[in-house]
Amino acid sequence: MSRATRVLVTGAAGQVGVDLQDTLRGVTPLGGDVSFQPDGKPVGEHEFEVLGLNRRDLDVTDRDAVLRSLHAARPDVVVHLGAYTAVDRAEEDVENCFIVNEQGTAFMSLGASEIGAHLITISTDYVFDGTKGAAYLEFDEPRPLSVYGASKREGERHCTPEDTIVRTSWVVGVRGNNVVHVIAERAASGANVRFVNDQMGTVTAASDLARSLVSLVRARPGGVWHVANSGATTWFDVAAHVGDLLNRGEEFATPISTSELSPPPLATRPARSDLDTNKFTSSFGELPPWRDAVARLVFDRPRRGDVPS
């Protein structure tokens, strides 16, 4: 019997971290699709040994602590999900954002290299400026508009060619605080919502991203990969879809422009940052359509109180 693959996950308490740990243990997380197997193989019993670390367990900005932890744990694969993700706050908290997203990633890459582990780290569509006019490919030149996007881009630069960089976008999960939960709560309360329709991107269900990461843990391909649910959309379209799912009328969601947001966001978002995922689709399989992913999230929400959010 072969030895289980040891996987160390940082950011384990986040919405993707929780779903990834479930998936590695052979459990379909809330909001997940049991039929989604991008590499065609279900997770085997005892295939993975999982070590999940949250911020209390490991400060990724402490180089010595990172190296000690990786040398002690000796994982085969490190999935680095720990990140500074407060996009607007980062505009006024520049140093901390870069310390976490740039230096933290650099330390994880260094530590993984020292022990011969494969690093998978998560980046973002916000490394792009949104002016291409089409979906972004892995080799398109990053030009971030925000502090958050720039910090994630610098984190990418510290990775080795052997590391795997996964760019994803608009991540939403059942066990996390995100826009879809806000929309669903407003729909259930009888209130209406206003969302922008001049920012286009790709929604990613945490559960589908988690299952995709399992495929990458197995393959350890290296390089840059774009992973998101299929189909580009806007937040207005997402809101309207949630309204339909919860039997609200057309009046539930109203489209507005970014310039109408009050107060205006501190960080500039790209107008169009949808990710071309054909590389992942060709190598593994296509992620489900975003509408299906959002529907799973919405209908599994009543059970989210059963587990920590």
Task: Draw up the topology in text.
Elements lengths: L4 E6 L4 H10 L23 E6 L9 H11 L3 E4 L13 H22 L2 E7 L22 H11 L6 E5 L2 E2 L6 H11 L3 E4 L3 E2 L2 E2 H14 L3 E4 L6 E2 H11 L7 E4 L21 H6 L6 H11 L9
Parallel strand pairs: 1-2, 1-3, 3-4, 4-5, 5-10, 6-9, 7-12
Antiparallel strand pairs: 8-11
Helix pairs in contact: 1-6, 2-3, 3-4, 5-7, 7-9
The percent range for strand residues is 15-25%
Class by helix and strand content? Answer: alpha/beta
Instruction: Estimate the global geometry from the Cα principal axes.
Output: globular
Q: Measured on Cα atoms, how large is the radius of gyration?
A: 19 Å
Biggest sheet, spatial arrangement of strands = 2-1-3-4-5-10
Q: Tally the helices: what do you get?
A: 9
Task: Estimate the helix proportion, in percent.
Answer: 25-40%
Taken in chain order, the helices and strands follow as: EHEHEHEHEEHEEEHEEHEHH
Oligomer: single chain
Low-confidence stretches: none
Give the N-to-C terminal Cα separation.
36 Å
What is the overall pLDDT average? Answer: 95
The major sheet is characterized as: 6 strands, parallel
Number of strands: 12
